[in-house]
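If your schedule permits, I should be very grateful for your opinion on a structural question. I have a record of one protein: its chain in single-letter code and its fold written as discrete structure tokens. Would you kindly read the sequence against the tokens and tell me how you understand this chain to fold? Thank you for your consideration; the sequence and its tokens are set out here.


***
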Amino acid sequence: MQKRDGQMLVQQYGDMLYRICLCSLRSHADAEDAVQEVLLRYVTRAPEFDSEEHRKAWLIRVAVNQCRTMLRRSARSIPTDPQELHPPEQRREDGRILDALMELPEPCRMVLILHYVEGYKTREIARMIGKSESTVKMRLQKGRRLLKAAFGKE
């Protein structure tokens, strides 16, 4: 991969990968490390892609797997400010939803982010995280239920 291709990849997918990793790892330093590892894997092991969407899905899958590996290696989880998940121009005064999201178990948090923030369908998420579509639907349902409970709406 040429330097220009790497810069394009970081510009196009860097923020998305960082948000996914930050939500999972809850640590800025760990999220940065995970994104670097994903990009390194892209440079050294990326397959041929049929489309740009295939490339994006591959990057997300590698990011999810990298976060899982890092979480298994370390039991520590440093809370972060949920407001920092969005670029400065997208930050909201009311971060209650992101606060509640950050408190969800990692499997629910990840599928909610992939579905609602990144816009993926359940079938696509299932492929990315290596789970069945019904598992993804159950995690989405559980995540929604937990968020409602956090806001006292159940």
